């Protein structure tokens, strides 16, 4: 298990490239999660999510994904990703599921280019239970 997490960490730090960028985005997913992402101006970017819609007794689920920007203009952006949903504070079996998120981000108001709407559809593969489909939507502000 630790080997898998180590490989994921190395891939997430090496694949985006050697250049550093300070642009961050903060996303809220309709009272379900809060996300923080790196610059989407690059071909590859990272996003981490903290899920807030679960009882505190069950631990705090975290999700980390690497995304590949597929198509983009000034007004919209499509991305495809892969990642892990973890519960590191549970103490046993920390991987909840693997995700393959597809995101669509649109900037509806041209005078507010930093604010956008985001929709995400994520097929998830659960290690012991099979497959599920998750959807998230929300708002993203890019600093």
The CATH topology, please?
A: Porin
Largest sheet: 9 strands, antiparallel
Helical region count? 1
Return the string of H and E elements. Answer: HEEEEEEEEE
> Radius of gyration in whole Å, from Cα?
15 Å
Q: Briefly, what CATH class? A: Mainly Beta
Poorly predicted sequence stretches spanning 5 or more consecutive residues: none
Q: What best-fitting shape do the alpha-carbon axes yield? A: globular
Give an account of the 3D structure.
- It is a single chain.
- The chain is mainly beta and 143 residues long.
- The chain has a single domain, classed as Porin (Beta Barrel).
- 9% of the residues lie in helices and 52% in strands.
- It contains one helix and nine strands; from the N terminus they run αβββββββββ.
- The protein has one helix spanning 2-14; strands at 25-29, 33-37, 44-51, 62-72, 76-86, 95-99, 102-106, 115-126, 130-142.
- Strands 1, 2, 3, 4, 5, 6, 7, 8 and 9 form a nine-stranded antiparallel β-sheet that branches.
- A hairpin with a 3-residue loop joins strand 1 and strand 2.
- The protein starts with a helix and ends with a strand.
- 21% of the residues are buried.
């Amino acid at each position: 298990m630790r080997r898998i997490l180590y490989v994921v960490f190395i891939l997430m730090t090496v694949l985006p490239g050697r250049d550093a960028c300070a642009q961050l985005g903060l996303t809220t997913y309709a009272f379900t999660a809060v996300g923080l992402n790196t610059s989407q101006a690059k071909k590859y970017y990272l996003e981490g999510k903290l899920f807030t819609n679960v009882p505190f007794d069950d631990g705090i689920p975290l999700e980390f994904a690497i995304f590949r920007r597929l198509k983009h203009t000034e007004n919209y952006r499509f991305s495809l990703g892969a990642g892990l949903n973890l519960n590191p504070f549970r103490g046993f079996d920390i991987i909840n599921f693997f995700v393959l998120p597809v995101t669509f981000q649109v900037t509806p108001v041209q005078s507010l280019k930093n604010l956008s709407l985001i929709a995400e559809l994520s097929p998830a593969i659960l290690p012991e239970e099979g497959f599920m489909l998750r959807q998230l939507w929300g708002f993203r502000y890019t600093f």
